[in-house]
Design a protein that fits this description.
The complex is a heterodimer of chains A (101) and B (554). Chain A has 101 residues and is an alpha/beta fold. In chain A, 35% of the residues lie in helices and 29% in strands. Chain A has four helices and seven strands. In chain A, the strands form two sheets. Chain A has a five-stranded mixed sheet with strand order 1-2-4-6-7, covered by helices on one side. In chain A, strands 3-5 form a two-stranded parallel sheet. Chain B has three domains: 127 residues, Rossmann fold (3-Layer(aba) Sandwich), CATH 3.40.50.2300; 218 residues, Phosphatase 2c, domain 1 (4-Layer Sandwich), CATH 3.60.40; 155 residues, Heat Shock Protein 90. In chain B, strands 2-1-3-4-5 form a five-stranded parallel sheet, sandwiched between helices. In chain B, strands 6-15-14-11-12 form a five-stranded antiparallel sheet. In chain B, strands 7-8-9-10-13 form a five-stranded antiparallel sheet. In chain B, helix 2 packs parallel to helix 3, helix 5 packs parallel to helix 7 and helix 14 runs antiparallel to helix 17. The chains are: A alpha/beta (101), B alpha+beta (554).
């Protein structure tokens, strides 16, 4: 599995991405954020600790997630991006739409 | 009903086979008594399978088989030899003629049954395959047609592009439309050049579709000399409206002014651009300040652009992230460092160097050509010639407009802006608002300072006296009791199909010596006049400098 999900006791929903985050994960990632747990969660986190690279379709998928969950800017948190992924967030100014830790 | 053709010159053999076949599975049996008859029966009856005797007078079974196999084309009709031959050689020859199998005489009924069943199954599979194949061929044809259609739209949308190789060197995939990559450039109506480079997230039809509104908006707004920020804003608004939320357009939009000394650039999501001077010395990186287009709504959108002072033949390198993300066979990235190394420390031909090093890195077999590289050779670019199809609008009326400024008006801050605002409302003038404002300001300053207020321009040539000059001007304005500057604008169509604005200005001042105005370039006044001259078709000074008349082509 390249996409794993976890619901913590305090109702925080975390999606973890392993390896390259790209269009190949389209369906898996969509399933992850459109699950019942995701809809009912208090807070949403995408954990990129094990993500190696990210492409533009993955950025699009993150925007889809935000739209689908009807979240405002900064309400979804992207955590642990590596240097390469962080660089892409910086270039595309994704910090405007997501909290990045 | 499955139909089997039995070929044998001996009538009892045919009868025997017919009896067996009917008993087996109620097959429809047709017969032929010779090789030639077999061929004609095959064409007439279209059997599903043929049982063929080999030894026959005239055309024998092997010859008939070769001819029948030729005639069946893509359709597979199994031919089974029924033969008394037992030598392996003669059987091999028989099969080489095109037969699919054989059964020895006298035949065992179970062997006959299983061979017929096996070959009919093969025939059925073959028929299914043929059907799917023809479906695929049709589908492929359909896709090719759609691809051609997209290419047609794409080419029509971008054919206007002004990609002069003196100014813009670029590398793009031949399939750029389907990668969603886009590079457009166009000359501004008053000279200077605009460029947009970007790529859509995603591939294929959806990405290609996005390039159409972008191209349309770009060319339209360049025609109106819009700022790069407002072009970015408009494209963003349209893409935000049209595209699904996961699609966006990473883009850089830039403009170089007509003199080639100022560049405005709006960057959203593109990697750092490299800026070098004429000698190839590194000047700066220009980084993306914005999110890609199509993500933010209009209220959130930031259209602020970076403004840089550039010099002739400065080079700017723009590229898509495809270059940095190109991989070699080991899965290693080409990376920013490698690119930076070539661009900053490279020698003569950095552009070709990047392309060739990238090719060496990824290997020739790796056709991952999803990259765009642009080298912009900064320089002044002349205005485009008016395209022939821009015929004159017969409805545009000629008009004349007079305005007069008195002493009180002259004391207001920026009276010229008010005049410019009125002119902007007139047809054909609004797109020239920038130039007209500059022009009117220079003309007005000239009349006010040197005509009405009678301050000698030469004083401005000395920097020490610069502030003193403006102090004097303020004082003189304050003390000014009366005076006028009259503006008379007339708009008309020339014989060449272009529109013109004639500006006639006269003032109540004392006039000045026109000769002094051009005696030295150091004088700011002289510079003002040269600005006016650079924009206008004709400039005339008369009445000892109390009247100035210029003709501006729209």
């Amino acid at each position: 599995m390249s996409v794993e999900t976890r619901l913590s006791g305090d109702n925080v929903y975390t999606i973890s991405i392993m390896g390259d985050f790209n269009f190949l994960l389209l369906n898996e990632f969509r399933d992850a954020y459109s699950s019942k747990d995701a809809l009912n969660a208090r807070k949403h986190i995408v954990d990129l600790a094990k993500t190696t690279t990210i492409d533009s379709s993955a950025l699009g998928m993150l925007l889809n997630m935000q739209r689908h969950l009807e979240k405002g800017d900064g309400e979804i948190t992207l955590i642990n991006p590596n240097e390469v992924v962080m660089k892409i967030f910086n270039i595309t100014h994704f910090g405007k739409k997501f909290s990045i830790d | 009903m499955t139909k089997i053709l039995v070929v044998d010159d001996v009538v009892t053999n045919r009868a025997l086979l017919r009896q067996a076949l009917v008993a087996l599975n109620d097959y429809v049996v047709v017969e032929a008594a010779s090789g030639n008859e077999a061929i004609s029966q095959f064409e007439k009856e279209k059997p599903d399978l043929i049982l063929m005797d080999i030894m026959m007078p005239g055309t024998d079974g092997c010859q008939a088989t070769t001819i029948i196999k030729e005639k069946m084309g893509e359709d597979h009709v199994p031919i089974i030899f029924v033969t008394a031959l037992s030598s392996e050689d003669s059987l091999a020859t028989a099969l080489a003629s095109g037969g699919d199998d054989f059964i020895s005489k006298p035949f065992n009924i179970e062997v006959l049954e299983s061979k017929i069943n096996a070959h009919l199954r093969i025939r059925e599979l073959n028929q299914q395959l043929n059907m799917k194949n023809s479906m695929l061929v049709r589908l492929n044809q359909h896709l090719m047609n759609e691809q051609e259609l997209i290419e047609h739209f794409f080419e029509s949308a971008i054919k206007q592009s002004f990609l002069d190789d003196e100014i813009i060197k670029y590398h793009m995939s031949s399939m750029s439309a389907f990668n969603g990559d886009l590079l457009l450039a166009e000359r501004a109506p008053q000279g200077g050049i605009y460029l947009i480079m970007g790529d859509f997230s995603g591939h294929g039809l959806t990405a290609a579709m996005g390039t159409l509104p972008v191209a349309m908006i770009f060319f339209k707004m360049v025609e109106h000399s819009a700022s790069v920020g407002s072009i970015a804003r408009e494209i963003n608004a349209q893409l935000y409206k049209l595209m699904p939320p996961n699609m966006f357009f990473v883009a850089t939009i830039l403009e170089i002014n007509a003199r080639g000394d100022i560049m405005s650039i709006w960057m959203g999501g593109n990697p750092d651009a490299y800026w070098l001077d004429k000698q190839g010395e590194f000047k700066d990186v220009i980084d993306s300040k914005h999110m890609p287009l199509g993500i933010l709504n209009d209220d959130e959108f930031d259209d602020s652009s970076q403004v840089l002072t550039i010099e002739n033949e400065d080079k700017l390198y723009l590229y898509s992230d495809g270059i940095i993300e190109a991989k070699n066979t080991a899965g290693e990235l080409f990376g920013e460092q490698r690119l930076k190394e070539i661009l900053i420390n490279g020698t003569e031909n950095r552009f070709d160097e990047v392309i060739s090093q990238l090719k060496d890195f990824t290997g020739e077999h790796n056709q991952n050509d999803d990259i765009t590289l642009v080298e912009l050779n900064c320089q002044s670019v002349a205005a485009a010639k008016l395209p022939k199809d821009k015929v004159i609008d017969a409805k545009a009326l000629s008009w004349k407009l007079d305005m007069s400024l008195n002493a009180d008006d002259m004391r207001m801050p920026n009276p010229i802006e008010k005049i410019a605002t009125i002119l902007n409302a007139m047809p054909y003038l609004s797109r020239h608002q920038g130039v007209l404002l500059i022009l009117l300001t220079e003309i007005y300053t000239n009349s006010l300072d040197h005509g009405i207020l009678n301050i000698e321009s030469v004083k401005k040539s000395d920097e020490e006296h610069f502030i003193e000059y403006y102090r004097q001007k303020d004082q003189a304005l304050l003390e000014l009791e009366s005076g006028y500057i009259n503006f008379s604008f007339s708009f008309f169509a020339g014989d060449n199909g272009r529109y013109y604005l004639n500006i006639h200005v006269s003032d109540s001042g004392h006039g000045y010596k026109t000769g002094a105005a051009t005696s030295t370039d150091e004088m700011l006044y002289g510079r003002g006049l040269s600005i006016i001259q650079s924009f206008c078709e004709k400039v005339g000074i008369s009445d000892d400098g109390k009247t100035l008349e210029v003709l501006y082509q729209l």
